[in-house]
Amino acid sequence: MEENIINKRLQKEAKKFKMNWEDLDNLYDIFYMINWQDYKNIKLNKMDKWFNSFFVRLEKIICPELYKKVKK
User: What's the gap between Cα 62 and its chain centre?
Assistant: First the structure.
């Protein structure tokens, strides 16, 4: 049930990209597979700011509950 809701939300968000929801989900998984040595290479090639920015943008789509503002 919950997976179906997530898939529908990802389908909606994927329309903003030229990817489908499975592509977005797989891309997010790949970002988590990068270990510290890979990240060291990304930083060495001065792509760390782009990588971090893209990861946050992707994470806001995949896990929006992490970025919801808490009401006081």
Answer: 6
Distances (CA, A) of 29 to 1, 24, 45, 58, 71: 21, 9, 22, 11, 30
How many CB atoms are located within 10 Å of the residue 37 CB?
A: 8
- Domain range list for the chain: 2-66
pLDDT digits over 6-62, tens only? 888 888 887 787 777 788 888 888 887 887 778 888 888 888 888 888 888 888 888
Q: Fill in the amino acid letter for 13.
A: E
Start-to-end CA span in the chain (Å): 30
Instruction: Indicate the pTM of the whole model.
Output: 0.58
Using CA atoms, how far apart are residues 29 and 25, in angstroms rounded to an integer?
A: 6
